[in-house]
Write a structure and sequence with these properties.
about 140 residues, Metal Binding Protein, Guanine Nucleotide Exchange Factor, Chain A, 1 helix, globular
């Protein structure tokens, strides 16, 4: 694996059976409010950092579940922690769940996407760009 410029970010699941390292700067860091992300994570949104696939090295066995025609999510088989997401047909990139990082505060989000589907009680007043649907 080639080291990308920037820091190494380490993360993993709750039980420690799966660990990963993400090298360098992410492509983007976003919070998704779509209904699929809400249901797949059991949360009001999915905060994730998108990396090139070659920048993320995973050690340990993950399970996979297809949550839409386009998206496969990976999780720890032992404790169920959601860890990664990848788009079908886009083998060049992979998303890392911010909550699974050892230091999640190290990668602050830069935008909210699919805010047209955000939960009604959530107030977005952090000054970040908001996209009704996805962003390019």
């Amino acid at each position: 694996m080639h080291a990308a410029p920037g820091p190494e970010r380490h993360g993993g699941c709750l039980c420690g059976a799966v660990r990963y390292v993400a090298l360098g700067a992410p492509i983007n860091v976003r919070i998704c409010h779509c209904r699929t992300c809400q249901q797949a994570t059991g949360q009001a949104f999915f905060a994730r950092a998108l990396y090139s696939r070659e920048a993320v090295q995973v050690v340990g066995e993950t399970g996979a579940v297809r949550t839409s025609e386009a998206l496969v999510r990976r999780f720890c088989l032992k404790c169920g922690t959601p860890l990664l997401a990848e788009r079908e047909g886009d083998r060049a990139r992979i998303a890392v769940a911010l909550g699974s990082l050892d230091v999640p505060a190290g990668l602050p989000p830069t935008a909210h996407v699919f805010v047209s589907r955000k939960v009604g009680w959530l107030v977005l007043d952090d000054g970040l760009p908001q996209y009704e649907e996805g962003a390019t």
